[in-house]
Amino acid sequence: MKKKAFITGINGQDGSYLSEYLLEKDYKVYGIVRRNSIAEHQESRIDHLIGNGVETEYGDLLDVSSLERMIRTIQPDEIYNIAAQSHVRISMDIPQFTVQTNALGLLNILEAYKNNCPTARFYQASSSEMFGRTVDEDGYQRETTKMSPTSPYGCTKVFGYNMVQHYRNAYDLFAANGILFNHESPRRGSNFVTNKVVKAAVRIKNGLQDKLSLGNMDAYRDWGHSKDYVRAMHMIINHTEPDDFVCATGVTNSVRDMCSYVFEKLDLDYKNYVIKDPRFMRPEDLKYLRGDSTKLRTTFGWKPEYTFETLMDEMIDHWVNIYK
Ligand code: GDD
Hints:
The chain has 324 residues and is α/β, with parallel strands linked by helices. Helix content is 41%, strand content 16%. The strands form four sheets. A seven-stranded parallel β-sheet has the order 3-2-1-4-5-6-11, sandwiched between helices. Strand 5 (121-127), helix 6 (152-171) and strand 6 (174-180) form a beta-alpha-beta unit. The model has no long low-confidence stretch (mean pLDDT 97). The structure holds guanosine-5'-diphosphate-alpha-D-mannose.
């Protein structure tokens, strides 16, 4: 019989790549999708999968009855909680909504899991944003690094991380955390910095835009490809025991480095186009991320197939094809 996976956030970047990956492994995939007033935006990343092994229903992490009903009737083997209000800057504008969705929402699905399908396995999308200000002496963050979040989003992810460990220990559930560093792709929302920069650079090259407004260009991030990271999610949920793993490339670049690389690829000098805009500054920004994923690499043999450069090149090609 086919294995069944249930994914919250199925129509996001990670949900769509994870669905494709699980279909290749012969899973039946189910997911919940929030109602959106623009129907075309609702499932655009997974349109090609609907009816081809993926089924979706309307639902929401805050709508307990639909969560309970779906988990009870589907009886999934694996539950991936990837849904969230995932934008760090926006979490400062709408902190209460962010806390409800990411923290209370996680608790809702954990309860639905414990009460209706406790033999399933559970994956929680934890985040490097949980580490916040802390960097170990050698310049990395890892599973043992102290958590000091710098945003409402980061605080909700610390809550979720701890709750998952509590449910694992208290109720003997297979509940695991993947602590994922930034991961991008052509499917990334274009208000995250990578896709914002790449899209704007290609538009500038094509004469469709003059300037690119950015916030803090001196923040460092460890950027990987979402496709590599959904492979890690599947490994983590299929481990012999529930545990927590950092997933990262180990390479860090600043927003400025990224702009320089992307504009140069298009024969442009970013300094002529990028302007600093206080609207995109954060009241408190996380300055530096670089992950040590030794535990993931040694346990499963995971390693990323993409480098920072091949990731950016794929994103550039994507936008060049759209605007050609
Ligand atoms: N979004 C955005 N827009 N970020 C900007 C801009 C801008 O115009 N200008 C500079 N930045 C800087 C931000 O201040 C931040 O330091 C960095 O670019 C990355 O911002 P994002 O791409 O928005 O990602 P993030 O690091 O805040 O959060 C992402 O990664 C986390 C993992 O560490 C999100 O995907 C989170 O959901 C995820 O958990």
